[in-house]
């Protein structure tokens, strides 16, 4: 950026086509050539009070601050106004938002928490930085172009042991360096994991967040909880190191949460199962090397680990979010799967699948809470900044009521989620399965509904409409 200094009078000379400067918050921009490319049209830039003038208020009434930070626009700045200082500093990536309700209370100065320690705070800082610096640029790109996560990024996730951490506390973390060593494996708890789930959802890239190896996160627990030691020794390291990809294949056109209605069938033939059927909405399925698959057998539901190979085919499903998630329709056509790939007892697949749902559902609520928090922050920022009818949007009571409803929802979700996370920290896997399944299921439903209502800016109940 140029260090040149100008006076207001000097800038005022440049107020015509081919020679157009403006001032935004003490910075001088030469927009002579940009004017024709301006997404808001060139006319507005030649208006009185804009061309050659200080257009700070007009600019911030129409644009997000981030516009000025984009490299193609930042380079339009040619200097600053002598004696003036910037009064609207750009948000610093990775730092705690100053927007009210823009962060969970435990991150805000002056508030207290019974759950998070200094260690969690250090971890959160590191994780936010990692996601901002390492993950965000690719997240934004892939969400847009629909391409799957790159092997290079997967390598970086493996370096910090991201997938291993996203599987929660446990023996699988032993001997691993977590996030550069900021937390010891034996200290890692569900609040650390919650921090990861929240932080990874802050870029508004919903498809990419699922593409960020969610298939492994939900598909691996049945392998290490129920797979043979040989199967675990082969598959777990491949997946955690990012060399192989995994997807959980339960849902079918015939059955979703109604797991007992699955129709994909596995029939024994010597040392093999022969699997035939289809699976739908399989996250990461397009690039998965293995499928943790729910099958119907003569003795009841059974879970099998099916490697991609002869008879396995995947095709993309068009979803409401980005194809970067790799959502697939999977077909198994007489696929021969070694009996050694059976996960858990034959006929006991329902409990293998259902016990896995708790963690998955809890994880989903964490990422939804992360996304909703960002929506609240963005809406508060924009509603304070955007001028309509000569006033900021926040001057309109209906907008304030919408914001209040959003805040009520996010705080309720956050607090319930933290309370359940605290229970998880103090329970065994089996206790969680028996005591928290109801709580977690209800929480997930509540948080998802809240997410939709917040995204649509719904008011709370009918209170206001009735009046
Ligand atoms: C360095 C100066 C400027 C840059 C880099 C810039 C850039 C942009 C960009 C990228 C957009 C697309 C929307 C967005 O991404 O937010 C936009 C829209 C717009 N800009 Fe600018 N702009 C500048 C100055 C101005 C000024 C001084 C005005 C004054 C009237 C203006 C008026 C508008 C309008 C009316 C729109 C359309 C907004 C809408 O559709 O809601 N811009 N501008």
From TrEMBL:
Ranges where the Cytochrome b5 heme-binding domain occurs: 3-82
Cofactor(s) listed in the protein's UniProt record: FAD
Coiled-coil segments on the chain, per record: none
UniProt-listed Pfam families: Acyl-CoA_dh_1, Acyl-CoA_dh_M, Acyl-CoA_dh_N, Cyt-b5
SMART domains according to UniProt: Cyt-b5 (SM01117)
Keywords recorded for this protein, A-Z: FAD, Flavoprotein, Oxidoreductase
Keyword Oxidoreductase part of the UniProt annotation: yes
Family (UniProt): Belongs to the acyl-CoA dehydrogenase family.
PANTHER family in the record: ACYL-COA DEHYDROGENASE FAMILY PROTEIN (AFU_ORTHOLOGUE AFUA_6G10880)-RELATED, MEDIUM-CHAIN SPECIFIC ACYL-COA DEHYDROGENASE, MITOCHONDRIAL-RELATED
Name of the protein in its database record: Cytochrome b5 heme-binding domain-containing protein
């Amino acid at each position: 950026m140029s260090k040149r200094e100008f006076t207001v009078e000097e800038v005022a000379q440049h107020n015509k086509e081919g020679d157009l400067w403006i001032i935004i918050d003490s910075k001088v921009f030469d927009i002579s050539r940009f004017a024709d490319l301006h997404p808001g049209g060139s006319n507005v830039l030649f208006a009185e009070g804009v061309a050659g003038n200080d257009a700070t208020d007009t600019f911030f009434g129409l644009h997000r601050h981030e516009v000025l930070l984009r490299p193609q626009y930042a380079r339009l700045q040619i200097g600053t106004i002598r004696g003036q200082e910037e009064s609207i500093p750009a948000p610093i990536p990775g730092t705690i938002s100053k927007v009210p309700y823009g962060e969970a209370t435990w991150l805000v100065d002056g508030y207290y928490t019974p759950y998070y320690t200094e260690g969690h705070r250090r971890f959160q800082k590191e994780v936010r930085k990692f996601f901002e610096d390492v993950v965000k640029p690719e997240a934004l790109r892939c969400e847009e172009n629909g391409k799957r996560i790159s092997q290079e990024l997967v390598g970086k996730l493996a370096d910090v042991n991201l997938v291993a951490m996203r599987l929660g506390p446990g023996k699988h973390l032993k001997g691993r360096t977590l996030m550069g060593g900021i937390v010891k494996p034996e200290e890692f708890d569900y609040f650390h994991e919650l921090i990861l789930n929240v932080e990874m959802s802050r870029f508004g890239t919903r498809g990419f967040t699922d593409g960020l190896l969610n298939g492994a996160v939900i598909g691996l627990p049945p392998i290490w909880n129920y797979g043979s030691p040989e199967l675990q020794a082969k598959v777990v390291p491949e997946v955690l190191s990012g060399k192989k990809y995994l997807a959980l294949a339960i849902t079918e056109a015939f059955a979703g949460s109604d797991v007992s209605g699955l129709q994909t069938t596995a029939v024994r033939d010597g040392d093999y199962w022969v699997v035939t059927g289809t699976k739908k909405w399989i996250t990461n399925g397009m690039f998965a090397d293995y499928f943790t698959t729910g099958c119907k057998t003569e003795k009841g539901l059974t879970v099998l680990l099916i490697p991609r190979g002869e008879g396995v085919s995947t095709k993309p499903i068009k979803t409401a979010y980005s194809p970067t998630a790799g959502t697939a329709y999977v077909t198994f056509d007489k696929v021969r799967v070694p009996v050694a790939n059976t996960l858990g007892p034959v006929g006991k697949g329902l409990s293998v699948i259902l016990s896995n749902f708790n963690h998955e559902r809890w994880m989903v609520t964490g990422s939804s809470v992360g996304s909703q928090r960002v929506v609240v922050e963005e809406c508060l920022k924009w509603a304070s900044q955007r001028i309509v009818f000569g006033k900021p949007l926040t001057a309109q009571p209906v907008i304030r009521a919408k914001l209040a409803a959003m805040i009520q929802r996010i705080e309720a979700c956050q607090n319930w989620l933290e309370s359940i996370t605290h229970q998880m920290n103090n329970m065994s896997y089996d206790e969680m399965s028996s005591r928290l399944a109801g709580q977690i299921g209800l929480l997930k439903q509540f948080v998802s509904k809240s997410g939709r209502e917040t995204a649509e800016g719904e008011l709370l109940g009918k209170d206001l409409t009735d009046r």
